[in-house]
Amino acid sequence: MLRTVKPKNARSKRALEAREPKEVEGPRTALFVKGTHTGDVVNNAMKDLMALKRPDAIAFSKKNPVHPFDDAASLEFWAQKNDASMFLIGQSTKKRPNGLVFARMFDYKVLDMCEVGVENFVGMGSFKGPKSTPGHTPALHFASDLFDTHPRLAHLKSLLLSFFAAPSVDALHLPGLEHVISVSLGPTPLSTSTTPEDDVAHLPKVHLRTYAISQTPSGTRTPLITLRPMGPHMDLTLRRAVPPSSNPHLLNLAMKRPKLVKKEVEKGLGKKRKNVEVDEMGDVRGRIHVGAQELGALKGKRVKALRDGEEESEEGESDGEEERPQRKRRR
């Protein structure tokens, strides 16, 4: 593990503060690591997935003897050194050809992993037309209820969402949505006996397809959306996995949400305060409720213009009464 270093100047102090935990985390940085043996399919798949992940992606140029399911010490070292929380490891062996391992970290420790096999790969270069701009977050679409019910498929869905995750937004700008990743399931293989949940041989293949979005005017406020195949296209078969429930203590820490400060609560990110709201300009406005006030006994200074009006009204009311003798004014 890396030793703890105290900052010696303001620049190193800002760099360490940027790595500290935050209340609202930014996009996850992913490391792309190649194993000792990789083929063209694994290299091209990692290259295209890295193009979708940029700029939050770091690729290792050299091959490394890494075995994440046997020893994860190297992953923890790289995660702490590069401040990364996601891994994509490519490895191809005789027993498990064309394999990709998605690994998720928390506090620079391995939280969960999932290995998939790549089949029927078609890269971006095989599709003509413009590609998406780096830095744009894709829209993910999961076209099956098994991604919410089956534990292995739900685990893969969670990893894909974390891999392509972006900061939460309040509104969506349609011109900024350039591509969509569709994840669907193939036909389920037939089996004569009841299979357990961890038997991945009887699970359907996962079809991952990427489409570019083109918007044309439709005469209304919502434009006409057209999907064009952009690549990469690949079929994934589930293999080994380490679920997050294997380390319940680390999972509880990862699921824990920090307490929001008073400023964030007033902005509406936390528990809503009563009679406090934020207007369009960002100013905090409050409403105070007071009881009924008796203003009849309130004594104040009367202006001369108001006094003349009161004298005229008094004269109009005393028309039927006798006129009082006027006093002589003193000279």
UniProtKB/TrEMBL annotation:
Subcellular localization(s) per the UniProt record: Nucleus, Nucleolus
Biased amino acid composition, Basic residues: 1-13
**Residue span of region Disordered:** 1-23, 300-331
Q: Name one GO molecular function term.
A: rRNA binding
Q: Which InterPro entries match?
A: Brix, Rpf2
Which family does the similarity line name?
Belongs to the RPF2 family.
Which keywords does this Swiss-Prot/TrEMBL entry list? Nucleus
Q: Where is the Brix domain?
A: 28-247
Q: Which GO terms describe its biological process?
A: maturation of LSU-rRNA from tricistronic rRNA transcript (SSU-rRNA, 5.8S rRNA, LSU-rRNA); ribosomal large subunit assembly
Q: Where is the composition biased (Acidic residues)?
A: 309-322
Instruction: State the GO CC annotations.
Output: nucleolus
Q: Which organism is it from?
A: Heliocybe sulcata
Composition bias type Basic and acidic residues, residue spans: 14-23
Q: Which PROSITE patterns match?
A: BRIX (PS50833)
Q: What is this protein called?
A: Ribosome production factor 2 homolog
Q: Does the keyword DNA damage apply?
A: no
User: Is Nucleus among the key words of this record?
Assistant: yes
